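2.7 Reproducibility. Because tokenized structures are sensitive to small changes in the input, we list the exact sequence used for FAD binding domain-containing protein, including any N-terminal residues retained from the expression construct. No trimming or masking was applied before prediction.
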Amino acid sequence: MSLPDFIYRRPKTLAEALAILADDADARALAGGQTLLPALKQRLARPSQLVDLQDIPDLRGVTVGADAVTIGAMTPHHVTATDPAVGRAIPALAHLAGGIAHPQVRHRGTMGGSIANNDPAADYPAALVGLGATVQTTRRRIAADDFFTGLFLTALEPGELVLSIRFPRPRRAGYHKFPSLASGYVTTGAFVSEGPAGIRVAVNGAGPCVFRQADAEARLTRDFTPAALTGFAQPTEGLNSDLHAHARYRAQLVAVAIARALDMALAQPVPEPETLP
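Resulting structure tokens (single pass, no recycling of outputs):
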């Protein structure tokens, strides 16, 4: 199927990209294209211009510090998954990135594009909320808890672009997902971390938008062991029911995903502060 007509733009600087988007309300930014291009083929999107961001070096790269890992919005999943410094600093984040879709998508898809799209079955929202990340945009900093606002909705305003994502380094963290066998998208997943902001548990795939599981957080705050989850049950209210899974099944998967993410976290050695680079 052919694409609808549009003007293709490939700016070399962030300022040039922002100017194009500011001048044309119907222009769309293009990151990895793993969602937007299929939408164009199906005529679900008809932008007047596509502003390809891949030639803007300021939007790429990984910086690992003693307290945080910062990843540029246009950094491909493959880089996050295989960068040795990311793997040492936040193993669960590298693990998550390495399990996204298949190699072709991991080499083209980007973190910024994924979170701006906010598909409920995407992986990265769980990492951002589960680690208490901060999204740096062209206008402001947005806490992950405030960034994802609903089904395919975020706090981004028209013309606002994601520049980078800053992840505080946790003491330990884990991620587990149950993917759809047909698509690889997340049917239900969970990200668990023990870090500077305490215990955080984020659930993705189960509802219209990633959410924090307050009951699991409270239990693990009292006792960060599998025993704390004994008797835990995810309410079905507000969960998705579709051809992939009923809400009742997803509720059961939430409990299992949290337990397995916790197992991954507990399997990691707890770093001593003086050993951090």
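The domain at 7-56 is CATH 3.30.43.10 (Uridine Diphospho-n-acetylenolpyruvylglucosamine Reductase; domain 2).
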